[in-house]
Write a structure and sequence with these properties.
Number of strands: 6
Pfam family, one: Ysc84
Structural class: alpha+beta
Number of helices: 6
Radius of gyration: 17 Å
Organism: Candidatus Accumulibacter affinis
InterPro entries: Ysc84_actin-binding (IPR007461)
Number of domains: 1
Strand content: 35-45%
Protein name: Lipid-binding SYLF domain-containing protein
Helix content: 25-40%
Shape: elongated
């Protein structure tokens, strides 16, 4: 690799790092979308998810709450970050507004937009979200990301984990989407 190419890549990585840090350090209230629009987008994404995936519909009947992030932006070039806002639905009504964010480092390049929904299957898992200042995915209650293969065999009677997550509406190019290491925090009212 030529010195010029390496220099250009490092310069781009620096600018991306600055942008990611600015996004992640900005006050959550300043980033939060208009609540009515956010709730509408989250409700629409949730309705499309349960209409498209029978396993999501089955889990929704037994879940104590569902947290829906309709739009998350992920970008990275060596250093990456992601952020998005969502709505916690309990008994069909909005029970809170949340932000998910995370940073990563490693061999990565690209930009991607996606959404995800987390089905909280018991009060214990929901309390892990609501009782603390933040909830880090991968620490605490078990979170199972449901893929197409698992979705075919999972039913509400075989669902024994605390939280099930569905990733949907992926657009753009980015090597892999994962929820591990994301931090979810409640947005101030």
């Amino acid at each position: 690799m030529s010195t010029t190419l390496v220099s250009q890549l490092l310069q781009r990585a620096r600018w991306l790092l600055i942008a990611v840090i600015a996004i992640l350090l900005a006050p959550a209230g300043a980033i939060a979308a208009d609540r009515a629009a956010l709730e509408r987008d989250a409700r629409n994404a949730y309705q499309k998810l349960i209409a498209r995936l029978p396993v999501a519909k089955a889990l929704s009947r037994d879940a104590v709450a569902v947290l829906v992030f309709p739009k998350i932006i992920k970008a990275g070039l060596v250093v990456g970050g992601q952020s998005g806002d969502g709505v916690l639905f309990r008994n069909g009504t909005a029970a809170g507004y949340y932000n998910t964010s995370g940073a990563s480092y490693g061999f990565q390049a690209g930009v991607q937009e996606y959404g995800y929904a987390m089905f909280f299957m018991n009060e214990k898992s929901l309390n892990a979200l609501t009782a603390n200042e933040g909830f880090e995915v991968g620490v605490g209650p078990s979170v199972v990301v449901v893929d197409q293969g698992m979705g075919k065999s999972l039913t509400s009677t075989t669902a024994t984990n605390d939280i099930y997550a569905f990733i949907f509406s992926q657009k753009g190019l980015m090597a892999g989407v994962g929820l591990q290491g994301n931090k979810i925090t409640r947005l101030s009212e």
